[in-house]
Amino acid sequence: MENIPPEKENTIHDLRSALELLQRTPGEYVETSVEVDPQAELSGVYRYVGAGGTCERPTRKNGPVMMFNTIKGFPQTRVAIGINGSRKRVGQFLNCAPEKLGQLLKNSVQTPIDPILVEGNAICQEVVHYADQPDFDLRTLLPAPTNTEEDAGPYITMGLCYASDPQTGESDITIHRLCIQSRDELSMWLTPGRHIDAFRMKAEAAGKPLPISISIGVDPAIEVAACFEPPTTPLGFDELSIAGSLRGHAVEMVKCKTINERAIAHAEIVIEGELLPHVRVREDQNTNTGKAMPEFPGYTGEAKAALPVIKVKAVTHRRNPIWRTTVGPGEEHVNMAGIPTEASILEMVERAMPGKLLNVFAHSAGGGKLLAIMQFKKSAPTDEGRQRQAALLAFSAFPELKHVILVDEDVDIFDSDDVMWAMQTRYQGDVDTLFIPGVRCHPLDPSQAAGYSPSITQDGMSCKTIFDSTVPFHLKAHFERSHFKEVDVKRFLPDFE
Questions:
Q1: What's the start-to-end Cα distance of the chain, in Å?
Q2: Per CATH, the architecture of 353-479 is what?
Q3: Has 409 been annotated as catalytic?
């Protein structure tokens, strides 16, 4: 536990203990009891307070968590937003210095602790609503917000989806976009290549539904761990084991009430259901806006024409539950997606060239997915060119990565001004730019369209690019930064941090 004062150490085990920690930390938590409409208004408020990321400006970066205590139409439920909205806050949750989170998660992948099943009812099952009850309606039971007035419908943006391979029994947990379509149906968009989609296709090929649980409001360690992707976590690797490693003990699961699947025992709310075989629905069938919701690159995506459907069997929850949501293009996405991206790159490059890649930052401008800043150390003439090899490995470690900026060890990768300085003084476009056209990337990047570039023959392809802003080894002596005298600042400013 590096660089965390003893008074900041914590024993977070669920959402509520995480919120309690923030309430004790100045500047990290705000709340309001003014009634807020979950339809566009709630997210509209938080856009100003702390969304950050690629969200429409103005917005505050690294703003506090916000709790809405009074939700229009949902008197028994509060809504929390922004939990993972600052890297510093994620560091608090995981007892780790913010700049070392990538290394922490890399190590946790290597030391997994599998989840365990607890007997009997769990706290997430204090209250049970069955879908066959006449008054059951997801639209009045769950305060799922819309981010904008043109969203396809109410979205579950922080649902931890858990399902198992119908052939092997191996399980996976991932966050997916879920839209409430009717009293007991959700649409589900699955990015191609996700493991739960592979499970769904196996079940569909057999003509069977796939049981799935959706846990909402959990330990932030689980939210971050769930965002790992292949090849770091291959098919059959349960990301809950990473969360177990982060906490030093197994994540507790509980049997669902109506389906043959498990859910996170300490969750605030759990939705139980089945992914139906050969059933599809238009994402905006209830609004006809043509839009889905704001996606991580900062644009509102188009509604999908045909999405798989989850038939909900039950909803269970704690008494007076807390709903978890996020702003699609906000800093929460950056941290949850980006820190596992960093861990994946660090892990692959370290195996190939130990000690050379010092650190990685999955930058906010790319939503934690599209842009990586890599800090590389050249120690000998033979290291020249290896920095570019490291960038190529990064594209393999995280296939959705689009751009890599390489910098030297004296550059602060978490300071965009410093990275841009390196690019202005250590980069020449004609010799330091490497293009890799015609490669699959992330399907939500709107520039990956066939009309954008001749090299893009299909939507979803991209030209991956390396910007080598490192100094050629033989010129390093000419690129030393100005050296200032080392002084004890606290002698002059005792409260300086």
A1: 19
A2: 3-Layer(aba) Sandwich (3.40)
A3: no
